[in-house]
Amino acid sequence: MKLLRFIIFSVVLLSSQSICGQVKKTEPSLTRVLFVFDASNSMKTKHKNTTRINGAKELFYKFLDSLNKQKNIQFALRMYGHTVKYPPGDCKDSKLVVPFGKNNVALIKSKVAEAKPTGITPIEHSLTESANDFPDAKAVNMIILITDGIEECEGDPCKARMKLMEKGIVFKPFIIGIGLTVEQIKTFECVGDYYDFDNTNLVSDISSIISKQKLNKTSSQVNLLDTKSLPTETNVNMTFYNTATGNYVYNYMHTLNQKGNPDTLYLDDFPTYKVIAHTIPPTESKEVKLTQGKHTIIPIDAPQGFIELRRPSGVYNFNEKIKSIVRKSNGNMQTLNVQIMNTTEKYITGNYDLEILTLPRAYINAVTVAQSQTKLIELPNAGMLTVKALDNGDGSIYKDTKKLEWVCNLNNTTSQVYYLQPGNYRIEWRAKSLKGSIYTIEKKFTVKSDIETKVELYK
Question: What is residue 137's DSSP assignment?
């Protein structure tokens, strides 16, 4: 048995107009209104001097007559819970009874008049299916859901709202409740605004709101700002988070439209958002609340430049395997990115430290990334070192400077290959079979780019 008594009147706006900065307030050529009517078993329940089904029908006729006075408008009817008797009912019991067309008001009224309370309430399924009832997205598309009960098929109307959004329909409902407590009303905060069913001005008030809303659509754009506070940055993935739940709601690749302006996004205006732009490192917006029927600009400081890592074309294929760890130049050892040699990557403007995983490692600090400029980091090609011995042994390679710098340990094999940056080196090595430190062998050598150097530990 349903615990709540209410009627949800859901309005979904869909407009194909292009918006930049301000929404154009022009009368659309066509408006479509889809009624989704609840004919489930609980509609038999008494309400005041009538039943819920009769009260819902009377309200439906009033809305239909009121909206039919508007110019260039079409209607359709979807009904649910009307064919399979409860119990058990059917969670797929939802059907488009009258499709969109001209002069079909009388037919829609007759189908509603024939409706008898029968099944259960699949709200999420019905709302999701209703998105497919519109022929196209060239008109202002609206949905009016009339029901007396909560979801009975383990669905979530909030999820349906998101599915409609994914199809380009902005789902903004009005909840018209009968005898709901404050706590019960809160359970539908994700669905929309609450109105009292017994309000005598309900039809005229909401019809007026619909008339105004269909001329405006809740929209936004994200301005990724450069150092001059101009929205020139783009091609970055953006995640919209619901600040109340911490969950992400949308993911979009930022795009500039054909006019070079940030693309318009149609978002649910219910949550308060925080937008994370996945630049390197990430940048974020302040908390933002969209205003119903208006266009909101969300600015994010995201000035960017480039770091290009380059090595000349060499004789060894290992050159392309080298990677660089990129960190901020503030002593923080957090890895922001691992960039592969011979690539160009975009970064937020500022100073960065590079740890390039050559052998030995190369450290380049305070690399400055400037707006829209490319900082080129060039490294010489490595040379190949071949080490041979007659016996297994232990040893290490050192950079030959005033203070020996350890590079790596040798493998315990008789034939080894290493790729080293150009420079002077030495090897300290002793055969395993020789049990005395005096048998340590020292070999000095020089490595040059793209040249093989051979070291024999038995001469």
Answer: S
Rounded Cα distance between 346 and 337, Å, is 10
Contact present, 94 and 80 (Cβ < 8 Å): yes
**Which stretches within 115-191 are classed as H helix?**
123-130, 157-166, 182-186
List the one residue out of 80, 78, 127 whose CA is nearest residue 99: 78
For 202, the enclosing helix (H) or strand (E) is helix 202-213
pLDDT tens-digit series, residues 43-73 = 887 777 888 888 888 888 888 888 888 788 8
Alpha-carbon span 21 to 300, nearest angstrom: 16
Q: What is the sign of the dihedral through the CA atoms of 79, 84, 85 and 86? A: negative
Tell me what pLDDT residue 296 has: 94
Q: Domains along the chain?
A: 6-213 (3.40.50.410), 219-301 (2.60.40.1120), 304-378 (2.60.40), 383-456 (2.60.40.1120)
Sequence-distant (≥ 6) Cβ neighbours of residue 351 within 8 angstroms: 328, 329, 366, 367, 368, 369
DSSP states along 290-358: --TTSEEEEEEE--EEEEEEE----S-GGGGG-EEEEEESSS-----EEEETTEEEEEESEEEEEEE--
